[in-house]
Design goal:
35% strand; four-stranded mixed sheet; elongated; alpha+beta
Length: 234
């Protein structure tokens, strides 16, 4: 598991206006919380943060006031217009304690069922695992080549790397090989069943920054999964 060193500075001011100034200067407003310690309002280099994401670094060694704070990315708020990160929540971790975190599922195929005309239905793109910070896998690989039409895999069927265990419900469906007709949904039913868009997508950036002005986000629970949420482009 890759680590990434990143300099972080304390924010002298919070609020929407201060955050806009930081972003104009190439800085990303952030907060560090968790482990029963006070939350710190920070800012980091937007360029460094993007570099860490491109390297798939899961453990960030935040250099603050001459010290180092190991952390994971707990959440990212995205600007719905620019599709750039607008704010990031970091969560402190203890390098000697196991944590729960979401890890991407990567399939290796195609399956026999797909070759025979079926379709891969991926129900779960990520799975929650429990492990030491330095043992966080980049992804969980699933070999679907033996699967035939109408066969499926559940969390209990996933093969975890050494030192990693699943923290998700064992019977939760991960994926299935289905017939095309099984994916056809009547137009009226599809409209009725369509889930509401995430709040982050529908909320205007100004309102989002206004929330920041009201105070720092609450501290994350120690066992909360670290996960970044990026809205779909419209």
């Amino acid at each position: 598991m890759q680590t990434f060193e990143m300099k972080a500075e304390r924010r002298a001011a919070v609020g929407s206006a201060a955050s806009r100034r930081l972003r104009r200067d190439g800085r990303l407003p952030a907060i560090l919380c968790g482990r029963g310690t006070e939350s710190l309002a920070l800012h980091v280099s937007a360029k460094d943060f993007e570099a860490a994401r491109k390297k798939h670094a899961r453990i960030l060694m935040l250099q603050i006031d001459g010290g180092t704070e190991p952390a994971v990315i707990h959440d990212v708020a995205w600007d719905i217009l620019s599709q750039e990160p607008a704010h990031v929540d970091f969560q402190r971790v203890n390098m000697s304690e196991r944590i729960e975190i979401e890890v991407a599922i990567k399939t290796r195929g195609p399956s026999k069922g797909e070759v025979d005309g079926g379709i891969l239905m991926l129900q779960m793109g990520e799975v929650k695992v429990r492990c030491l910070p330095l043992e966080i896998p980049e992804h969980i690989e699933v070999d679907i080549r033996p699967l035939e039409l109408h066969q499926s895999l559940r969390v209990k069927d996933l093969v975890m790397p050494k030192g990693v265990e699943s923290a998700a419900a064992p019977e939760a469906l991960v994926l299935a090989i289905v017939e095309k007709k099984e994916l056809v949904v009547p137009e009226a039913a599809a409209a009725e069943a369509a889930p509401a868009e995430p709040e982050l997508i529908t909320k205007a950036p100004k309102a989002e920054e206004g929330e920041e002005a009201a105070g720092d986000p609450p501290a994350a629970k120690a066992d909360a999964p670290a996960k970044e949420k990026k809205p779909e482009k419209k």
